[in-house]
Specification:
126 residues; mainly beta; 0% helix; globular
């Protein structure tokens, strides 16, 4: 059974950076597409980035493009989301998710993903 665990969340000032990690156990990630989502209080969960199984394809939501970078290390079974220039509108619980088709031809919907982590909180405040 695949399990995903996010880490790296925390409190950061506006303009600061955080590095989120998504670690997998019970399954190797190298065949899976991975997405990052976030959900702010009172809002729907939204997709912000995805990466294909090989890492050759990535996509970003307009709200994070140019500030966030998704990458993966299949040898370490982890996917990372580097978040720079954090803004007051970025706070949310951030989730990683995995899907078996291994693709990221575009940002995929929530329904495309088969497994989810428990989330990690990101707070941006001065």
């Amino acid at each position: 059974q695949l399990q995903l665990v996010e880490s790296g969340g925390g409190l950061v000032q506006p303009g600061g950076s955080l590095r989120l990690s998504c670690a997998a156990s019970g399954f190797t990630l190298d065949q899976l597409g991975i997405g990052w989502f976030r959900q702010a209080p009172g809002k729907e969960r939204e997709v912000i980035s995805c990466i294909s199984s090989s890492g050759s394809s990535t996509n970003y939501a307009d709200s994070v493009k140019g500030r966030f970078t998704i990458s993966r290390d299949n040898a370490r079974n982890t996917v990372t989301l580097q978040m720079n220039s954090l803004k007051p509108e970025d706070p949310a619980v951030y989730y990683c998710a995995a899907e078996y088709l291994g693709g990221c031809p575009r940002l995929l919907t929530l329904q495309s993903y088969d497994y989810w982590g428990q989330g990690t909180q990101v707070t941006v405040s001065s």
